[in-house]
Amino acid sequence: MAASIFAAVPRSPPVAVFKLTADFREDGDSRKVNLGVGAYRTDEGQPWVLPVVKKVEQLIANDNSLNHEYLPILGLPEFRANASRIALGDDSPAIKENRVGSVQSLGGTGALRIGAEFLRRWYNGNNNTATPVYVSAPSWENHNSVFMDAGFKDIRTYHYWDAAKRGLDLQGLLNDMENAPESSIFILHACAHNPTGTDPSPEQWKQIAAVMKRRSLFPFFDSAYQGFASGSLDKDAWAVRFFVSEGFELFCAQSFSKNFGLYNERVGNLTVVGKDADNVQRVLSQMEKIVRTTWSNPPSQGARIVATTLSSPQLFDEWKGNVKTMADRVLLMRSELRSRLEALGTPGTWNHITEQIGMFSFTGLNPKQVEYMVKEKHIYLMASGRINMCGLTTKNLDYVAKSIHEAVTKIQ
């Protein structure tokens, strides 16, 4: 029999976070804890369907006027408009001046990919693959892959995490921006930086914006956790709104996986802010061509849930309450874990756990300590030491804290 035409295809290594979840599921130890996957969990360790989402799903199911016709290529208009509105704010000058457009996408990843594809084709000249794209060190691993697969050849890192002080390396970040070629693209986390949980303060964001404006750098925000980080939609969108107020043209990839709990609905939006309405419409016309050959038309269910919620003042308020419930639980787990580690006298400082924000915490555990946690304690976390704070519960906090104490004490 002839060899397969696919015989030379190498096996790709599994995606680390999903492999971690698979290993967790196969583990029969009763003490096991999953701190890897980036999804919200209740104090019982279960996924949570937001009450407002359940309510809206029922409303949609009972609406006999709805059908399954194709959506427009760029997506559900009321979803796109409302998604951009919560990113930029009700009083956004860009919205009032009609220089905002958007594209419904398959999750935040889809928004990043459509933005990346457009930039590769049209940014700073036609089909410019040589433009440097800067990604924070560390960052969500998909950032590098999305821009690489979109055709960019020069992907670089900028300083972000200071391991010694377990916080932001602002000076390193600013130096990298100063030294970047003009018109370079910078991927910025709007809030709740993944994986470190460390965000610039408003004053630091102002310094970042000043350098980017002077050096003509392009900001591409990734906003995956608006509302989920602090419990406040406005606070978590501060950086994006400030950049808009400073006159930047920018892209903002939005995900509604976390703040609506719609992980498997793949609800995303790419907000485009331009200099004027004509520029934005020309950009959208090219993005429409990209979408047409990528997924052609987006799915409607998740977008309808978000649009219905954001369009109704009553449902919108209920959703904000649901989001605050999630954010508050994460903040509580941060406080409880830190207090336990400090009570145990765990070597090192642990204030960074409560100073960080959002779903993830960069614990500072090294790879050998992580390996000890996984193999000896059945606590699953990323090799970088990143943990999902939602995986902590009142029932496993003591066990996790004691295990971290053991790992840090025994293994240097």
Q: How much helix is in the residues?
A: 40-55%
| Strand residues, percent | 5-15%
Radius of gyration: 22 Å
Number of strands: 13
Q: Give the strand order of the largest sheet, numbering strands 1, 2, ... along the chain.
A: 2-10-9-8-7-3-4
Mean pLDDT: 93
Order of helices and strands: HEHHHEHEHEEEHEHEHHEHEHHHHEHEEH
Terminal CA distance reads 55 Å
Low-confidence parts lasting 5 or more residues at pLDDT below 50?
Answer: none
Query: What is the approximate shape?
Result: globular
Q: By helix and strand content, what is the structural category?
A: alpha/beta
The number of helices is 17
Describe the overall structure.
The protein has 17 helices and 13 strands. The protein is globular. Helix 2 runs antiparallel to helix 14 and helix 16 crosses helix 17. It is 46% helix and 13% strand. The strands form four sheets. The protein has a seven-stranded mixed β-sheet, with helices on both faces. It has 412 residues and is an alpha/beta fold. The relative contact order is 0.17.
